[in-house]
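Supplementary Note 2. Why include the ligand at all?

Several targets in our set were suspected to adopt different conformations when bound, so apo predictions alone were not considered sufficient. For every target with a known small-molecule partner we therefore ran a joint prediction. The input for MIG is given below.
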Amino acid sequence: MIKRFPWGKPIETEAVIRREAVVLMEGLLQVPFFSKVCPGDGKASVLTYDMGEHDRIYGLGENIRGINKRGWLYVSDCVDDPIHTEARHNLYASHNFFLIDGRERFGVFVDAPQKVAFDLGYTDRDRITVTVDEGGFDLYILEGDNLRQMVREFRQVIGRSYIPPKWGFGYGQSRWGYKNEEDIRQVVQKHRDAGVPLDSVYMDIDYMERFKDFTVDEGKFPNFPRFVEEMKAQNIHLVPIIDAGVKIEEGYPVYDEGVERGYFCKKEDGKEFVGGVWPGRVHFPDMLNDDARRWFGRKYKFLLDQGIDGFWNDMNEPALFYGEDYLQEVFDKLEEYRKKELDLHAFFGMKNLVLGLSNRKEDYESFYHEYKGQRVRHDKVHNLYGYYMTRSAGEAFDELEPDKRVLMFSRASYVGMHRYGGVWTGDNSSWWSHILMNLQMLPGLNMCGFLYTGADLGGFGCDTTEDLLLRWLQLGIFTPLMRNHSAMGTREQEFYRFGHVEDFRNIIGLRYALLPYLYSEFMKAAAGDDMMFLPLAFVYPCDEEAVLSEDQLMVGSGMMIAPVYRQNARGRYVYLPEDMKLYRFRSCADADTEVLKAGHHFVRAELNEVLVFIRPDHVIPLSFGGRCVADVDMSKLRLMHFVRDEAVYELYDDDGYAKKIDVEAGITKVRVTADGQVTAEGPLKAEWTLL
Ligand code: MIG
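The joint prediction is reproduced in token form.
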């Protein structure tokens, strides 16, 4: 059961959309579990909970550190900061839902669009302190005895997760710096020539005319619709980026209309707030204002009309290189420094002045939204901005493309946005530790409704290496969003920059072999408000070693993964909570298998080998691969199997586009008996072989 404890006048976020399924409680003072509740009137509110020594905490979505989040201070305050070290407190998202399991078991969702701090045993290792910045909020408390079931209950009230088109499960190649059609053609050609599958190429900010949203630079793309066609003919989807800030430039229709209709965020004095981002000076569309949101969403039509069917929304924390008013102050102050002797204090004062220009608190406090008929200062709703930008697109797609799914994922997000798009996890780095971070984030994201998600494979910042990319892909082949992306100025990291083409062909090819399973598991999770990536703790709650596992995950119903994330490793330790069958893949056509007993094992995995573990009495469908998602032949399927008695797999499939989903109707039941008999019942007519 979920109970809601409102405090003050919460700002409606529309994260929870099934209010009727939640029991409304009177006030905060009745809140169970928390030992101290200090609802702040005009100041921050504080809740504290005393943990048992070995209580574990799961959730908080996109955040650094472990699957068990205990022992750190996490802050919900969406920010664009590309250095994701373990010292960080906040990233691009605010996902305020977590579960505690141990002496007691309960769930907490702090529905508050302002800043919220989760001190989970940071100040005092046995205490949780949740601090909500000034303002009202809704506190939701869930009780239950099964973690996965509790997540489902939460997910039911926040609404169904976004579902991408099936091609969105294909491999995507991206790089900040592809200049024009020719660059993109080359990327595609090189994949096709080498037999490395590919479904999409991403277009970063350079495709635009001077970084203006909803424009295409004609110098670089002389006939864009024709180019989109040319790519489609090769089964390649182009996916352009859209940034939050709108360039200030007279004669640019998005700017002109926005000013004329009053759709940009304004300051106290009624003038539009001016910030600096890639296009130079920009205004921020008021995504929280219904009319402005509808207006901005309709702008995506410009690209949809040219054949585009996927987008990524960036810079929507919103990122702010500088606020113009403050920039002027800084210039003035620098003039003063010119006259000073730069001693220790003066020098650092000057330096910090410039460093402090970006994403500055006072700037976020200086502009307003028109939200549900009220004027609301930005910092009070800061964490909703990316959510509402993506919502603006999602709502427009429902009108413009009622029958066809459009690919959409965002950088900034809040719970609720999961209904409109997925997320990628932002500017990670080419560090080995970030493979593990990618893995550890997945269950938390799923808990908060974000199923369509993935990291920049190979790492965004810094220089990658071939082995790092290979190892990262070995995790990436399981994530719904599988995209290789990197920053301008870093080492190029398309597969063909490296020597071992075959390894890339095999690993990426394996993704396409796994597609029937991954798509089926994703769709069932979305339709059933379930998780696709689970901590072992959620499946084996009574097995202490499983509960403590931080570097393995369950993927769907029958599979466990344990990727290698250390350089020069030739294998790794894996814990098996029960007997499992290991498939060690070198390609989608070449695997050796071995049944391993429950317990600890050192499992070999060379740089070209992927480990997949199957639970007893489970089977997993595999295709023969393909050069793109459309190529994958669902009429010839193989089965990975570990059958002692009997296994039944419910394989869901559909056309990959329809927005209306009927899971029951799309399921084919595949039954395998211990003696290897395969029977199938359902819409899919396939030839089955055992692998
Ligand atoms: O400030 O568009 O996270 O994926 O390549 C950098 C350029 C802006 C940040 C995104 C990244 C993208 C980059 N953008």
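The domain at 530-690 is CATH 2.60.40.4040 (Immunoglobulin-like). The pocket of MIG is lined by residues 176, 204-205, 241, 314, 411, 426-427, 485 (CB under 6 Å). Comparable summaries for the other entries are listed in the accompanying table.
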